Batch of 4 targets.
Target 1
Amino acid sequence: MQSCDIGIIGLGLMGSAALHALMRRGADVLGFDPLRIGEARASSHGSCRIFRRFNFESDAYTALSDRAYAGWRALEAESGRSILKPCAVLEAGPAGCELVARSRAAAVAATGAATGQCNGREANAAFPAFALPDDWDVVVQDSGGILMAEQAMRAFRRGAEANIIHSAVQMHPEGAGIRIITAGGDVMARQVIVAAGPWIADLVPCLKPHLTVTRQAVGWFKPARQDTTRYGEFPIFILEAARGMFYGFPDFEGRGIKAAQHDHGRIVGADEWGPPADDAELEPVRATLAELIPGAAGPIVERDICLYTNAAKADVVPDEGNEFIVDRLPKDPRIIVASPCSGHGAKFATAIGAMLADMALDPQVRPPQPFRLDRFSGFA
C-alpha cells in the first residue's frame, strides 16, 4: 500500500496552498482531488477573487491579510505569474452603514488613521460609472487587489504533479493511520488535511450540523460605458444596497463586469451546481447595477454558480462567531479540517496554507482561537 506522512484531501486554493507550503519544507505529502484546474465546479473555480487588506467581517483579519499579501507576492516572484493585480476597493452604503463603519474601523485599528473616507457625491466624481446617493458613506481602500485564482492554483501546483492523485476519495481512520481510499488503490497517511470545500462535511460528518452550502448566482454584464469600467478606471466594489449586499470587479478581462449578490442564497447539496444562474436569480444584481452603477449596467453575457460553505453562527459559544473553521478534530487530532470558505476566504490562502503546514508538521501548533472548533457548542 502506498503511504505518506501527510495527505491533503481537496486541492482548491486552500489545499493547493498547503501542498505548496509542505513541499517547500520537504514534507512527504500527497494531494487528492478528482477535479483539474479550470473545471467549473468547486469553491475555487473561476478566474478571480477579491483581495482586501481591511475587512468589515473583523479587524482581526488585517494581520492575516498582510501575511497573505506577502505570500502572494512571494508566489508571484517564484512562479513568474501575475497573481495579485492592484485595484482599489470601494465599499459603500447608506449613511450609518455597518459594512462601511466596520471597514473604516479595521483601517483605523491597523494604521491609526481614517483613510479613503468620502461620501457618495465624491465617489461618483472619482468613478464616473457610479451614481451613488450623495449622502452615502463610502470608504476606498487603495491596498486591495484582484486575486487571479486560477493562476494562483497553477502556481501552487507547479512541479507537484507527481504528488497529486486525481481521484475522488473516502477516508477511514485506523490505528495505523488514516486510510485514503481512491479509485486506483488505498493510501495510508499518518495524518490528513481535509480542505474539500462544499464536500468537507461528507468526509468529516461531525461538521454537518455546523455547515451549510448555499448557491450563489454570478453574472458578467456588458457595461453601458466601457470607458468608465476598465481596469485602472473602475474599482472593485462592495455595496450594502436596498436589495442586499453586492460585489463586483472592473472589466479587466474583456468579459464585462463580473458582479454577484453576497447574501447567502438557497441551501443546496455539494453537487448541486446546475442549472446555470437564471434571469430571476441575477435580477437583484442587474437592478442594483442599473440603479447605483449605471456605467456598468447592461445585458448579461455570461453566467456562473459559486457555492459558499457557511459556518453556523447560532451554535457558537461564547463569542459571536467567525465564518472559518481551521482546527484538528478533538477526537482524532490526526485529522486537520480547513473550511475558510463563506465566500471571502480565498484572499487568505497563502497565509492559511502556511498555517496548515505548521499544524501538520508540529502537533504543538494551534490555530487562532476564532477558527477553532471548540467555539461550537457541539465541540466545546
Note: The mean pLDDT is 94.
Target 2
Amino acid sequence: MLVVLLMAAAFFLYGVFEHRLHLRSLRAIPIRVHVNGTRGKSSVTRLIAAGLRAGGLRTAAKTTGSAARYVHPDGTEESILRVGRPNIREQVRVARRAAAEGAQALVVECMAIRPRLQAVSEQMLVRSTVGVITNVRPDHLDEMGPTVDDVAEALAGTVPRGGVLFTTEHRRSGPAAAVARARGTEFHEVEPRGGDQGLTEGFQYVEHAENVELALAVCEHLGVARDVALSGMRAAPPDPGALTIDRVRVDGREIEFVNAFAANDRESTVAVWKALGPRIATAPQVFVIASMRADRPDRAFEFGAIIAEDLEADRYILTGSLTHPVRTTAVRLGLPVEKLVDLTGHRADQVFRKIVELTVERSIVVGVGNIGGTGGQIASLFRERSAAG
C-alpha cells in the first residue's frame, strides 16, 4: 500500500512540475493565437503565421489538418510524427519547442473535437492572447451535436480570457460573443472589405477570401500592415489539404483537377464551387468526382442532394465504396441518370482513365466528398501526373 501511495505522490509531483514548465514556456511566448472552427483552420493558421513572419515577428505555427506540421520561426517546416492517436498534450511539446526557438508568436490549430477537450485545450494548454473561430458548420455532429447550434457552443470553448477573438462566422456567432463577454475578451466579427477584388490573387493554390480577411484582421491587430501581411501570405506554401489545382495533359487533352475532397459538407462544398466560379464558367466540360466512404452513409445521402441541387456539371463520377445512396438520392431529386457514371470500387487509375475518355479537349474536374480512401488516391495520382509533366 505504501508503494502505491508513493507512486501516486510521485506522479502528482511530476504533473505539477510539468505544468510549471509548460507555463514557463507560454510566458516566454507573448503572442499566442488559437485557431478553431469547422473549416479552414489549417489554412488560417498558416496565413496568420506567414503574415506575422512577414511583419518581422519570429512566429512558429502548428497545424493539425490533413497532415500535421510544425512550422519553425524561419518558415521551414516538418511533419509531426506520432505514436498512436493524436493527443491534445501534443500542444505542450509544441509550446516548449517554440519557446526554445525564441518565438515571439505561436499560432496553433485546435486539436480537440469533444467540447470538454476544446475548453481544456484553451484553458490549460494554449491560454491564447488571440482566439480565432473560422466558421460554424455541420460536422462532427456525433461528438459536438446533435445540432449545428451545439457545434457553435462547443467551438466557443476556445474563447480566450482577457484577450481578443476574431471570427468570420455571422449566423451562429452568438455563443462565442456571449462567452467573450463573460471572459472579458474583445469580440470582432470580420466583414469582407469592399473593393478588394484581388485579395485571393497571387496564391499558389485556391484560397477563400474569408480566410484571408480573417488572417489579415489578426495580423493588423498585432501590428502588421495589411499589405505586408498579405505579401507574406501569398509567398507561404499551402497546407497539404489546401484547395489545389493540378494540370494534366494526356492524349492531346488538358485536364484541370481541383482537389476539394476536404470540403465534406454542403456549406463548404458550395463555398468551394463559388470560389471556382470563373474557372468553371470558362471550361468546355465540367466533371464532378464524388468519392464516398462506407463508414459515412449520412454523408453519401447528403452528397446525392448536393450534386443534384448545387453543383451543375456535365458528368458526375461516383467512386469509393458507397455510391448507391448518392445515386438514388440524386436521381430522386431530378438529376438525369445519364449524367451519372458509377465507378464503385474502381481504382484511382481507372477513374483517371475514365476522365480522360470523357474529356474531348479540355475539362475541369472537381473532387468532393471524402479525402480518405479513393479520394486521396485520386488526388495523389493527379498530383503525380502533373509533376511528371
Note: The chain has a mean pLDDT of 90.
Target 3
Amino acid sequence: MKRLRLPVPLVLILALSLSSCVSYQERRLREFNRAPLVGMVYDQEQKPCAAAQITVDGKEGPRSDINGRFVIDALERGDHQIGVSKEGFEPLKTKVSFVDRTQVLYLRVVSFSQLLRQAEEALGRGRFQEADGLLRRAEALDPEDPVGLYLRAVYFLRLEDVQQAIGLLQKILARGQRLPAVLLSLADIYQYRLQDPAQAAYYLREYLRAEDDPGIRARLAEVEGQPAQ
C-alpha cells in the first residue's frame, strides 16, 4: 500500500495552523478579566474540610461543601488574599496569583486536635522547641482546653519546672475535670520529685475513685506506709 505523502507546503500550513490553535487556546486561558476559581479545603490528614468560610481580599466568599470544594465566582485576574476560617481550625491566609482559567486552589488547614497530637508526639521525641511552638498555636485557638493544659504541664515537667506543671494540673482539677491522667501525674510529682508521700497518697486515692486499678491500690498502700518527710 502506498503511503500518502503531503506536499511540503501543505505540511507546513497544517503545522502552523495547529500551532496557531494551541496558541489561541493558551491565550484564551490566560487572557481574561474575570473567571471562576475552583478550590478545595482539606486538613493535614488529606480529609476534606466542609463548611469552611472562604474570604477573598477580606470580604466574605463561599463556604466549602461536604467534599471541601468551593467556587469563587467571577474573580478578577491577578493577585488576591484568600483566607479560610472554621471553628476548631487554625485560620489560614495566603496570597494567590490567579492567571489561568484552569487553576485549582488547594488550601490546607490544621485542626486544634491535630496540633495537640503533633505536640504530644514532639514531647515524646524530646523535641521541646517544636512542642512549645505547636502548643502556642493550639493555645491561640483554645487556651483553656484541658488536654492542651495537660500537655503544657508535661512540657514544663520535661523542662524541670515542677511548680508550673503543678499549677496547670491543679487548674484542670479546679474546673471539676478530675481526669485520671492528671491525678496520676500529680501523684507522680509529689511521690518521686518532691518526696511528699502525704500529697502523693491524696492524689492516688482520688485516682482510685475514678479508676479501680489493683496496681495503684498496691502503690497507695506502699506510699501510706512511708514516714512523712
Note: The chain has a mean pLDDT of 89.
Target 4
Amino acid sequence: MWWLTDHEEPTRQGSRHRQNAPYQRMRRADGYLMIGAAGESIWVRCAEALGHKERCDDPRFATTRQRLPNRGALEATMEAVLMTDTTEHWVEVLEAAGVPCGPVYNYQQMFADPHVGHRGLVQYATDPELGDVPHIRTPVKIDGSIRVRAVAPKLGQHNAETFDRMRLSEQDIETLQAQRVE
C-alpha cells in the first residue's frame, strides 16, 4: 500500500511494522517475543507493564511519530528490561496489561503448543506404503468435515484417468510412455 500511494520503495524492516513502534519481535534471554504495541493507549500500557511509564514522557518515545525514527533506542531499552525474565513471564505480564504479544516458537515448540492440538492443525492421511503421513491443516476452520483425506498422488498415479479425459489415442499414450512422460 505504501508503494501504491507514494511510489517510494519501502525499506526492509525485518519483523518490524512499518508504521507502528514497538510492533515487532524482541530478543529475550530464552528466545524471542512478539509485541504489538500499536497506538498510544497500548504503548502506555506496554511501558507501564515493563515498569517504565516514564518512557511515555521521553520525547523520543512519546508518540508513534517520535518512536519510529528512534526505534533503535526504543528496542535497546525494551530488550534490556525483557532480558531480565523469561518469555513466559513477560507474556503473562503483557497480556494482563492488554498488550498484544506472544512467544516466537521454534517448530518443536509450535507443534507442542496445546492450541495447535486443540485446533487439529496436524492431520494424518494413511498411505499403504508410508503408513500415517502427517499434514498441516489450514488454520481456517469452516466446519469439522474439512480435513486432509489422502497423501499426494505418486508420480503417474492418475495418468490413465488424465489420458482418458484428454481423449488420447492408444498410439499417443504409447508415444508419451516411450518418452517417459509421467
Note: The beta strands are 23-28, 31-36, 101-104, 122-127, 131-136.
